[in-house]
Structures are given as structure tokens and as C-alpha cells.
Known about the structure:
- The chain is built from ten helices and 13 strands.
- The chain has helices at residues 60-75, 90-95, 111-120, 122-130, 141-145, 174-183, 201-214, 249-262, 271-276, 282-285, and strands at 5-8, 16-19, 26-29, 34-40, 44-49, 52-56, 80-85, 103-108, 134-138, 154-160, 184-193, 217-224, 232-239.
- The protein has a seven-stranded mixed beta sheet with strand order 9-8-7-10-11-13-12, sandwiched between helices.
- Helix 1 packs across helix 8, helix 3 (111-120) packs across helix 4 and helix 6 (174-183) packs across helix 7.
- The longest helix is centred in the N-terminal third of the chain and has 16 residues, at 60-75.
Amino acid sequence: xxASSFKERLHKGYAQxxxxxxxxxxxxxxxxxxxxxxxxxxxxxxxxxxxxxQITTRDESAYAEMLTHLPILEHGKAERVMIVGxxxxxxxDEALKxxxxxxxxxxxxxxxxxxxxxxxxxxxxxxxxxxxxxxxxVADAFEYLGRKESKNRFDLVVADRPDPVGPGKALFGETFxxxxxxxxxxxxxxxxxxxxxxYQPWEITEALNELAEFxxxxxxxxTVVPTYIGGFMALSWxxxxxxxxxxxxxxxxxxxxxxxxxxxxxDYYNPAVHAACFALPEWIKRLVP
Length: 289
């Protein structure tokens, strides 16, 4: 493949190719992974880790907004948010749009990702870096969740975990979910990226089975991120407490009122999308245990 294009082979037997506009902005190996940042004609600025697309400025809103606004608006009183990973700060930027949020703790194992994204993704994260409510921790999020000071601390934990390969493997599985539960306050929520079901159907079944072991309430909702190839992207959620449920008629109505009051500026999320995202196609329903 010529140097003027990038090919992703995340799914066996399938690839997507992006043309580059000019030379790559970054191409280096950190302690943990290969980081590439480049511009494209159709998808804006792109970052890949180990040649897997992580973010593009064209469609990041469909991912970051749905992981944050949906649970924060249904919660209604979220003050402290933890982000697992998320070194591009797109999710932190969305969480910080809520005036009631007092603290956003972002924990990413790779400080170099944060540094490069600060330099090259200012379009989406410049405000977040300047916000005094943001606390950056270059650390292992799995270890951070297990710390004494993390217990019962957060109203929302967003797991912006990569695919379960390399350093991201620790962010999947029963021990991880147990630590997330312990870090949440009663009534708090956690949201997780759970893969593209068209190509990664097992992720939904495995994640929901494991979440059910640690949380009284959990479930699934959908978004569409074009560069996460395969159509729908599954986002799973869990609530700490029997009444902590997302997607109920009362919760959706509450979120719509809160959205209107907050006057949030979004590109993907709105109350109608919030209500619709819990509707699952039949083939995805069959993946839900």
C-alpha cells in the first residue's frame, strides 16, 4: 500500500482504506503502542493505535456524545466522572459541557497519546485542556480503579477502552467490571464501548453476561460511527442500584427536559436519538443474553 494511504485490517477478511492529505502528522512507537495521526479528504483528522482507527474529527461526536450525555442527563445530578482511556479528550470535552459536573478524571496509560492529541486535535479538545475541572492521570486505569480513593467516588465511569488486544486486554473481563462497580457511587452509571456487532457479535453477549454478575441493572444501546466499520456500534451500560436504569420512559423524559435546560451544543445526540437508540434490530436482540 502506498505511503499516501492507510489500510485498517481490524476484522479478518475485511479492510478499509483511507487516502491521506499530505504527510502524516505523527508516526511513532510509544512504550505501549504505535501512534499515527494523519489528515484525510473524507474523514478529517484521524488517529490510529496499532493501525486500528480510534478517532476521526468527522464522526467522533457519534461516539463521545452518546457515551456521556445520555447517562449524565438521565442521572440528573452527576458531579464526578471518570474516563478509562480517552487520551484524545473527546469524551472529556463532552462531559465538561455539563455545568453540574465538578470533576472529570481521565486515566490513560499512554501519556504520549495525550501529548500528541493536545498538539493535533485542538479542534475537539482545546477547551477541555483549559478546564480546571479536568484531572489527567497517566496511569493504568485498571490499577487506578482499585485504589482506595476511587471507592464510591464517581457518578459516571466511561470506559473508552480499545479493542481487547495489547494493553487494552485488562479493561475487559470480570475483575474490571467489579472494580468499576466499586468506584461508582450508589445510583451511578457506567458506559462501555462493546464493539461493532456486525463483525464482533460475541462482545455483546460476553459483556452483558459479565455485567449481570456485578450490577442489578445493565443493557445495550446503539450508535453509528461510520469509521468504526460495520454499521451499528454497541454501547453497553450498567447501573449501581436497582433503580439505576437507563432507557426507561421516565429516564428518557427526564433527559429531554435536562437537555433543553442545559442548552448543550451537539452534533449527534438529541432527545429523539436518545429515545431511539435503545431499539435493537432483531439480529442484535438475539445476541443479548
